[in-house]
């Protein structure tokens, strides 16, 4: 067997991180520079969502929280926030997100990856899922299309290549950074401003007198 | 959003530190003295004979709260480390760079330039504020000599010359520090150069105590970014020595410790009675002084200052973290040069 085939499975969250920002993915999954805040926020969010009323109250719908999922085929492993099992056999993953209802490609990719895992585990097709936006308390239904499935496979390949390289992609320093919880670890402005760094280094040994 | 978590210093002998629900609770003589929610804590530092329950140690390990044991005089004894794997790729890079002569020299020069520049600022500021002409002169002359040292530093071609320049400059700097002490109390806080292990005058005792707290913060910062604290660039490897934490600490000594010591002395918050000379000449802080110094240090860490590279205001207490991060970026090749933190 080729060594490359027995790589460690990739975390589902890594796909979402990568499609948001490759550097964010590298900081978390290569540098393991976990921001305490992220941890704490995640923990709090899980508790909040478990306490959320109305979930699982549909007749006959069984709801699983924090369900472990995986795909041997793609080499994925992770957890679904919520998976609803309907009496008619439908399986419906729901991913919880902070913030308002808004379509985000990286959330969709994460959801599609969950759907692919659930299909492989249960042998049943998973055609739809939803992103639940905590701030606006709205669900946004996402169709697990062929093109979305393709994007998942491409992202898996890209993440695997990134992890194998062990390298940090440079900071993007764009609108994404504003919402990124790893901003203080990443320091996009300071790191991209090479001219300022050079100037400060030269001035380090120069004195005005 | 920069958040700086609190460091809890447990200094009362025979305190019992234990877990109660999601809080850290301290009892003395079976009486509750303090209760803090765990999520407010970044570090717990215990001085001397403090009892600690296994449950609180487990919880701190789980939550990534640093747990540090110091002896009664503030010297580092041990730390509770959890299974954080850190960043092995960063450590690999650190090990490679540590044998790269050019890289090591560049870091050593930057670190010492940062130290001397910040020392010089302390003297210059003192000179501006000095009422006495001879004090003023002493301070500006030493500031000038430090400026020369910094210029020499830029052309130093090996580690030994960097260490030589640093040694001479430090000697000059410490000889000028007494000019910054209020004239009427100067006799009680005379200082004949830097002495440690043990400190042999009140000023040195105060400095040693502050340096040990600063050292802890630098070591935590180094570890939290995933670097190996024992492998330094300027400071050489010696078993049990956190050489990289010492490297990082250089730029902060004058601004976080020396200046604070001077403030405490000049404001009369620490008086000669707070520091007792033992038979033979070693000087240590009394319990009363320790509490004052620790509180002042904590308050200092909350004060904000502009970070020139980030161009934003950050608390003093976060500086070791930020600079450790920049150090790791330099080691990983994301930044060309390490740029120490400079006060203006």
From TrEMBL, chain A:
Cofactor annotation remark: Mg(2+) or Mn(2+) required for ssDNA cleavage activity.
Gene3D superfamilies linked to this entry: 3.90.320.10
MF terms (GO), sorted A to Z: exonuclease activity; iron-sulfur cluster binding; metal ion binding
UniProt-listed Enzyme Commission number(s): 3.1.12.1
Signal peptide: none
Keywords: Antiviral defense, Exonuclease, Hydrolase, Iron, Iron-sulfur, Manganese, Metal-binding, Nuclease
Domain of life: Bacteria
Entry cofactors: Mg(2+); Mn(2+); [4Fe-4S] cluster; iron-sulfur cluster
Keyword Iron-sulfur: yes
Sequence ranges assigned to domain DUF83 in this UniProt record: 13-187
InterPro entries: Cas4_exonuclease (IPR051827), CRISPR-assoc_prot_Cas4 (IPR013343), Dna2/Cas4_DUF83 (IPR022765), PDDEXK-like_dom_sf (IPR011604)
Coiled coil region boundaries: none
One Pfam family named in its UniProt record: Cas_Cas4
Record GO biological process: defense response to virus
Record has Repeat as a keyword: no
Function: CRISPR (clustered regularly interspaced short palindromic repeat) is an adaptive immune system that provides protection against mobile genetic elements (viruses, transposable elements and conjugative plasmids). CRISPR clusters contain sequences complementary to antecedent mobile elements and target invading nucleic acids. CRISPR clusters are transcribed and processed into CRISPR RNA (crRNA).
Family: Belongs to the CRISPR-associated exonuclease Cas4 family.
Protein name: CRISPR-associated exonuclease Cas4
Organism, as annotated: Nitrosomonas communis
Automatic annotation (TrEMBL), chain B:
One Pfam family from the record: Cas_Cas1
Enzyme nomenclature, EC number: 3.1.-.-
Enzyme class: hydrolase
InterPro entries assigned to the protein according to its UniProt record, in alphabetical order: Cas1 (IPR050646), CRISPR-assoc_Cas1 (IPR002729), CRISPR-assoc_Cas1_C (IPR042206), CRISPR-assoc_Cas1_DVULG (IPR019856), CRISPR-assoc_Cas1_N (IPR042211)
Keywords per UniProt: Antiviral defense, DNA-binding, Endonuclease, Hydrolase, Magnesium, Manganese, Metal-binding, Nuclease
Origin superkingdom: Bacteria
Cofactor: Mg(2+); Mn(2+)
Ligase keyword on record: no
GO biological process assignments: defense response to virus; maintenance of CRISPR repeat elements
Sequence positions that bind Mn(2+): 166, 235, 250
Signal sequence bounds: none
Entry's Gene Ontology molecular function annotations: DNA binding; DNA endonuclease activity; hydrolase activity; metal ion binding
Described purpose of this protein according to its UniProt entry: CRISPR (clustered regularly interspaced short palindromic repeat), is an adaptive immune system that provides protection against mobile genetic elements (viruses, transposable elements and conjugative plasmids). CRISPR clusters contain spacers, sequences complementary to antecedent mobile elements, and target invading nucleic acids. CRISPR clusters are transcribed and processed into CRISPR RNA (crRNA). Acts as a dsDNA endonuclease. Involved in the integration of spacer DNA into the CRISPR cassette.
Subunit relationships: Homodimer, forms a heterotetramer with a Cas2 homodimer.
Family, similarity comment: Belongs to the CRISPR-associated endonuclease Cas1 family.
Entry protein name: CRISPR-associated endonuclease Cas1
